[in-house]
Design brief:
Two copies of one chain form a homodimer. With 270 residues, chain A is α+β, with helices and mostly antiparallel strands. Chain A is built from seven helices and 15 strands. In chain A, the strands form two sheets. In chain A, strands 7, 8, 9, 10, 11, 12, 13, 14 and 15 form a nine-stranded mixed beta sheet that branches. In chain A, a hairpin with a 2-residue loop joins strand 13 (228-235) and strand 14 (238-245). In chain A, helix 5 packs across helix 7. Chain A is globular, with a radius of gyration of 19 Å. The interface between A and B is large, with 62 and 62 residues.
Chain lengths: 270, 270
């Protein structure tokens, strides 16, 4: 699978990726996962806005613009013979010597890959992670950084118990998000989602749903969440209904349909 | 600066590092920073024990042993013409397709670099980070993972205000560690350090100091910390005295000398 690094299409085996890249050594970078279809990237403007915000938080200079990303995705589609798929954009602070402080003149790294979309997925059976928590005190909760190990650990543990996905609580034991998605829940008949300050990543799909459906944005305690009758996960690749949380059945109902319409997606991707 | 990847010495420009390596894409890995001098790595057994523990937490198979690491460091010293320095070992889960779940048969990546030691450093002027917190609820607080962005953000912000290093509090507003070191403080005449459950990484130097000086291992609130008369930072490269915290003078005194003796180091490395 060929990929794009700093303006060049390369095979992974001939990668010019420097092992001193701070993305590799320290997780010092950001990423975006985007839907590529019909020759364009869905909501590229929103993804780039979030990337710019994250780059500002980390102090990484972002000189690449939308005008470069779409042709790069097209080139990857051509060379990898894919009509559509998932573009992953990775931006790092670039190579550096040992130590936490960045080099005086960082040269950021940008990598794009295009991979096939996965098959539509059935409604998820979900657990609440006993393994780790989202840190709502960290600015990383508000940006899509490369520091993804908490979500990985939670997901691996959940899978070991047979679950499809996992909900992460914050340090106050309130709902933050799933390992890969934003969480919407119908509680006492009202569509709700946690605010960013609770450790919820400002997801692109989450933003679209909020703008169109005007849900209540409020902290969700475990007691609140236990009263949820419908739960829907969203991310930039689409939405997923939740069938069960900790074995308790939920309805796949009106909230799912409304959110699906809001996102204008036809399938149920991962 | 040549480096060692999966058994081969290579130049960074001819790196076989795959851009789909999960260390690069998700921070899915671990590292150790070790002192190389006189042809051997100080406390290699302790570093490898911590690495094995971290690998077990992440579920990464670690087949490399001490017997391989020392010759690799020697080869790097020879080719890079360094008599001593700092070995950085990076272990990742290896390449993978998009998504959080690891591939069925991961092929872990191991990278070693050897870089010069930095010059001895004067006692540090330190601040307490207003930017972020250690997440003591996460298993990542107990292992040396690649997810280092919280410490990077805290350090960059502290430097922007003229400080040499920065103390990270946990989510309960208690002392966890500095951006690169364990923290020892003399409070009410007693040498103290926070326990691991407070978000303190089980540092190799910290372990040596605990074994030899038997400090009180106890949570340190901001009120406790304000009464500290001496503060010393330790990491695998040595120790550093703290001259001031938030502008308030401390003594560089007996605790520094005791910890220095416990670590048997002659200089004050970074």
């Amino acid at each position: 699978m060929a990929l794009w690094i700093n303006g060049k299409i390369v095979e992974p085996t001939e990668s010019p990726l420097d092992p001193t890249d701070r993305g590799f050594t320290l997780g010092d970078g950001l990423f975006e996962t985007m839907r590529y279809e019909g020759g364009s990237i869905r909501h590229l403007d929103r993804h780039m806005a979030r990337l710019r915000l994250g780059a500002a938080v980390l102090g990484i200079e972002l000189t690449w613009t939308e005008a470069l990303i779409t042709p790069a995705a097209e080139a990857l589609a051509r060379i990898n013979q894919l009509d559509d798929g998932v573009v992953r954009l990775t931006l790092t602070r670039g190579p550096g010597m040992r130590g936490l402080l960045p080099p005086p003149q960082p040269k950021p790294t940008l990598v794009l890959t295009l991979q096939p979309m996965q098959a539509p997925m059935i409604p998820a059976c979900v657990t609440i992670s006993p393994v780790t928590r989202r840190n709502e005190f960290s600015p990383l909760s508000a940006i899509k950084s490369l520091n993804y190990l908490d979500a990985i650990l939670a997901r691996i543990e959940a899978r070991s118990r047979g679950f499809d996905d996992v909900i992460l609580l914050n340090t106050q034991n309130r709902v933050a998000e799933s390992s890969v998605s934003s969480v919407f829940a119908v509680i006492d008949g009202v569509l709700c989602t946690p605010p960013q300050q609770e450790g919820a990543l400002p997801g692109v799909a989450r933003g679209l749903v909020i703008e169109q459906l005007n849900p209540q944005i409020c902290p969700i305690s475990l007691a609140d969440f236990a009263r949820a009758t419908q739960v829907v996960f969203t991310n930039a690749l689409g939405l997923r209904a939740v069938a069960k949380i900790e074995g308790v059945d939920l309805i796949v109902g009106e909230a799912y349909t409304q959110i699906k319409d809001a996102l204008e997606v036809r399938s149920i991707p991962k």
